[in-house]
Amino acid sequence: MPGAVRELLGLDGENRVFDTVLMGRRTWELGRDTGAPDPYPRLRSYVFSRSITQSPVPTVNFVSGDPLEKVRELKQEDGLGIWLCGGGVLAETLWPEIDRLVVKVNPVVIGAGIKLFHSDEFALRKLRLAGHHVYESGVAVLTYRKE
């Protein structure tokens, strides 16, 4: 959850699942443009960008190199999980390193949306449902693992 939302809801507990968040530049810019240049201050943040090579925010790490190489490096470190937050282009690039896919389905449709995986080619990707939870609000969280 973004830091501002955590504060509004009075959530101050430690993250138990993730300690690192990955974003593409456009996803990061959405936060920046709404006043949150470090939208996840409790997590180590990495933004992948070919156009911004120096971080304009000291608490956010910008990576201009190979995303797969960086993620493989991060996965070798001790710590909690790595969360890929938005960015169909980045998700497509990182597909070989994605261990599980968590899809949140909301009972509200806003705009046209972003592709989950942005590719110009049709790719069949088999996943297996590993868990699910439906909240009273109608939000469904589906967890899949690669087959």
From TrEMBL:
Origin species: Kribbella lupini
SUPFAM superfamilies linked to this entry: Dihydrofolate reductase-like
InterPro entries: DHFR-like_dom_sf, RibDG_C, Riboflavin_Biosynth_HTPR
Name of this chain's protein: Bacterial bifunctional deaminase-reductase C-terminal domain-containing protein
Domain Bacterial bifunctional deaminase-reductase C-terminal, chain residue ranges per copy: 65-140
Pfam families from the UniProt entry: RibD_C
